[in-house]
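#structure-requests
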Amino acid sequence: MTDPGVPTARDLVTYRLNLLANLLSKQAGSIYGRRFELTIGEWRVIAVLHDAGQLSLTALAAATNLDKGQASRVVSTLLDRGVVLRAADERDGRGVALSLSEDGCRLFDEVYPVARERHERVLATLSSDDRANLDRILGQLTDEARRMWREEKEGAERVRSKP
């Protein structure tokens, strides 16, 4: 039995945000899979490369919130489909630069309106003031989460470096 004044695990912000993100991702994954034969990870890579122009695999993994192994597998699939191009990185002779092909740009142009429509539908449940507040709050929460993650990494490094 829980104390009515104490939040349950389901009341925690991380639980609620994760639930929301998972529900939206499942719905998007179904639409993108059915209509465009894309996974969520593939769409993320396409969208990020569209906006960035060209990225290394490491930068792409960070920008899409995929680990490097996942990003590598997604990129391999998209390379095989002709959606992504791989070239030598002009700044780093050993590195690889990834970008969208013409087919990748066309695919982005087909999928983005669907993504935008989903975005607008979810946000339509909010007033314009609520939208502005949500944007501000998400920024604050993200900034704090980054600080917390940085502190955790630094603490873990101190523990590992103790003799």
